Amino acid sequence: MDRRFFLRGSALIGCSAxxxxxxxxxxxxxxxxxxxxGDQRLIVIILRGAMDGLDVVQPVGDPxxxxxxxxxxxxxxxxxxxxxxxxxxxxxxxxxxxQAGELAFAHAVSTPYRDKRSHFDGQDLxxxxxxxxxxxxxxxxxxxxxxxxxxxxxxxxTAYAVGSExxxxxxxxxxxxxxxxxxxxxxxxQNRLLLEAIYHDDPLFQGASSEAMDxxxxxxxxxxxxxxxxxxxxxxxxxxxxxxxxASRLREDTRIAAFSQNGWDTHRGQVAGIGRSLTRLERTILxxxxxxxxxWRTTTVLAMTEFGRTARENxxxxxxxxxxxxxLMAGGAVRxxxxxxxWPGLAxxxxxxxxxxxxxxxxxxxxAWAMAGAYGLDQSVLETAVFPGLDLGDNPKFML
Amino acid sequence: MPxxxxxxxFRFGNGLPSPEGAATDVASMxxxxxxxxxxTARHKGAGFASVLPMLAKVEETRLAQRQDxxxxxxxxxxxxxxxxxxxxxxxVTVARALxxxxxxxxxxxxxxxxxxxxxxxxxxxxxxxxTLIEDAIRPHLTGGFADMLQAVTLHPxxxxxxxxxQSVGPASTLGKRRDRGLNENLARExxxxxxxxxxxxxxxxxxxxxxxxxxxxxxxxxxxxxxxxRRAEPGAETVLGVSYGTDGLEPITQVxxxxxxxxxxxxxxxxxxxxxxxxxxxxxxxxxxxxxAYLNTGGDLMAVYSALLEHPAAWVDDAQKARxxxxxxxxxxxxxxxxxxxxxxxxxxxxxxxxISPLEAMGQSLRGPGGPxxxxxxxxxxxxxxxxxxxxxxxxxVPARLIPDLPDPTALAARALGPLASDRLLWAVTRAESVxxxxxxxxxxxxxxxx
Lengths: 400, 451
Hints:
The complex is a heterodimer.
Chain A: E1 41-47, H1 53-56, E2 57-58, H2 63-68, E3 79-80, E4 86-87, H3 95-99, E5 103-110, H4 119-128, H5 143-150, E6 159-162, E7 177-179, H6 189-198, H7 203-216, E8 219-220, E9 223-224, H8 236-250, E10 256-261, H9 270-292, E11 299-305, E12 325-330, E13 338-340, E14 361-362, H10 363-375, H11 379-386
Helix pairs in contact in A: 5-11, 8-9, 10-11
Chain B: H1 3-12, H2 26-34, H3 39-42, H4 48-67, H5 72-99, H6 103-115, H7 128-137, H8 145-153, H9 156-161, H10 173-178, H11 185-194, H12 204-214, E1 217-220, E2 224-227, E3 237-239, E4 242-244, H13 250-261, H14 263-277, H15 284-297, H16 301-309, H17 325-335, H18 340-345, H19 348-362, H20 379-382, H21 385-402, H22 409-417, H23 423-429, H24 435-444, H25 446-449
Antiparallel strand pairs in B: 1-2, 3-4
Helix pairs in contact in B: 2-16, 4-5, 5-17, 7-8, 8-13, 11-12, 14-15, 15-16, 17-21, 19-21, 21-24, 22-24
């Protein structure tokens, strides 16, 4: 158990019950002796950096796709999903889940965020779950915490934020817990490139930085630790630590878990960059299924990102910040084997701003329908308390 | 914010944002420094007298378990008590640096603590370095250098670290009876490091004579510092051509005072100050200005600091120096809004994990530099692959573990760097994939780590 130690204000966000690690599991029981949230588990993964949905679930049936992406679209090994979309080869190990109906996607989705294409603002909006009618930063709690707020009788153990990244998604007045593993941090490719950029004009820092970044990626808490294993470039051991902890809680009284994965900001060298991140995502889902055991049957995993990327590849074998993207749904509670959403087409007139995949669905609506399906939450509660101002629209019926 | 305010905060203080009540120009910096040392009332430290009973108990149980191994648990328990007190002392030191509006005072204390370096060589000594600062450096920070030199040289922490407690005049009562002799360590470092400097014209004979003169300085585990006439070498000693005749403490304080007034000492101190605060290859005119102030006033430290701050060469904003690791962590905590009270209230475990251990990884253990010559000044000694890796790692990892809501990285860059933030850095922080990494970029940047 890790806590945030030096508090600036009086409010200790998200850790109010951390001082009571021995809360009895009996106190978690609902009125009928069961958990107030029943058996269903919800795991939300925030993919930070803007995942390129068009590269993950590739619209190979759209003739414009190959023309926009001469360098990226020719990568071999993509697995056919439904005759129109194909799954990036680096998620290939998820195909058995697809065939078993435990994996689905929603394409051409986004938050209401538009135009500025800033990672931080985009992530703020994604996690606050608000629309553009509310000023950015005005809402201090996350939509997953607001879900906890509307269910009476929950204890802190119900929800965990896992990992070293702050999770505004779960921050708020409802008690929850957080846990940070003592494993080394991953040095993402993007972070490395940015460090190289900021040291560029200082010969002393520039000279020390290359070796320093290799060393930093192998350290824990500023202490020298075992160096990263050479055959584990995607740092899967770190994933395993996070997933194993989350699964150990979810097999008990925890119903909700949230964590982050970085490494999606693929402005250049996208084939390698997104490949490594997809390997990590693939491992996360396979490991969750394995570690959750029988609980996988009542689990929904949602993986979402702040926005998509440009339809066209850029001049450095990558893509730039865009709008519409892809959301991933997995788990035994999901009606899988289908790509949900309305495909807008890739013709230039169909793009947003003549550059990005046009969003035709709201990620918040999918999250809301997942909560409605898992916990039986009322549509009006979802549209007012959890996602104020959201119109849920028609039920896409991706929950069993 | 004018660029020179940022230079003031980086070069002569603990960084931005400037605390409430901080100086805004050289005159107010000097006025704050000339005033009372107020932060010691808010965050209280421990001098030697207050930790002496604990140290005595450590020594007592150490000797007891050597006679009787079954006493070992008592000794270990005492060591743990003393460890905890040492960590509490280090927390107070950092808390003062976080909260003191007079940042220049805290930086000067670091400078003098380094000039008069003492390190803990073993676990029994963890408490000692902090007591030297509390008793001998803080109270004399703005007085005469001779007074500080005297207080330091007679302090138990120095007497232990430089072996003076072992030194016995060969012809003294104790020396003749027990066949014990002289140890030159303290005498040599007083001349080489603390006053004249290694290039001054003194010889081995001067070292030997000073070592004989210093005999009698001793430590009593029930009283602290004592002058023990049974160890003192009888007769007169001649140091740098001056004969110090009478017995007792008086000739010792006299030789220290004379060493403090030497022109070589003025030049040595002037150069060290300028190298530490301004540049590894200092402007000779700036050094000359500080040296002249020292000589004109007989080592009045306020005059010396004024001469440093009032010279334009002290304000050239070329940021040639690197923040040392301790300053990096203090400045980072300040930039993140961590207060002294929050740090003290968080307890010892996070302090160990997020301050003490990272400092060791960055190459600057809180136990001291090891040798009496202090920490290196050259930027290349700090900004190397291992040192920079530890800073990057701290910047990327620790802030999110310390505070519940990380600041927006662009806002942090404005707060912690002001006009010093480069366009390249401001460009980069908005492209970080997460707030955590954006915050890390600001704190790992060259402009944050230089001063």
